[in-house]
Design a protein that fits this description.
- Strands 1-2-3-4-5-6-7-8 form an 8-stranded antiparallel β-barrel.
- The N and C termini lie far apart (about 55 Å).
- The longest helix has 20 residues.
- The chain is of the alpha+beta class and about 160 residues long.
- It is built from 2 helices and 8 strands.
- The chain has 2 domains: about 40 residues; about 110 residues, Lipocalin (Beta Barrel).
Length: about 160
């Protein structure tokens, strides 16, 4: 094992030596990765298709708190509009099944986003979303007062419904 570690250390040292002798290789590789990252920016079109999601959290004020969990589907239309359906349980009891919602979202070039949803009962929620250039998955957190909730969603279809 010590011999293998010595071989690995030698290979790493050799690699560092080559890079030290050829700084243009480092600059070129760095430039390519920065260029690739800037060309992979996000927009509303990054989020397109049907996503399945789930999240959990706590809501409440003062000494009162209520645990909840939710799951559903959302369809991002690629243009800042969305619609979906959600089911929620509170303290282990179903409270709202298949509640429809609509919303608006705005994706920034750095792949962060804001989202506002309104359900069929006129309950409005606000979210910060985080995705990658491909938009295959999203992590999100609710930003409304007195709520601690976060979750994730995964694209299950690239076509709209």
């Amino acid at each position: 094992m010590k011999r293998l570690n010595g071989v690995l250390c030698g290979a790493v040292a050799l690699g560092i030596g080559i890079l030290a002798l050829h700084p243009e290789l480092v600059k070129s590789a760095k430039g390519q990765s920065e260029s690739a990252a800037s060309s992979r920016g996000c927009s509303n079109a990054t989020l397109l298709g049907t996503y399945a999601y789930s999240f959990a959290g706590v809501t409440g004020t003062g000494d009162t708190s209520t645990r909840f969990a939710a799951a559903g589907q959302v369809v991002f239309e690629g243009n800042g509009n969305e619609h979906g359906v959600s089911t929620t349980t509170t303290e282990g009891q179903p409270v709202a099944s298949f509640v429809a919602f609509t919303g608006r979202y705005s994706v920034n070039p750095d792949c962060t986003a804001t989202e506002t949803d309104t359900d069929q009962n006129n309950v409005v929620t606000h979210w910060n979303d985080f995705t990658g250039p491909g938009g295959a998955s999203v992590s999100f957190i609710e930003t409304d007062p007195n709520v601690v909730a976060a979750g994730s969603e995964t694209r299950v279809s690239t076509s709209e419904r």
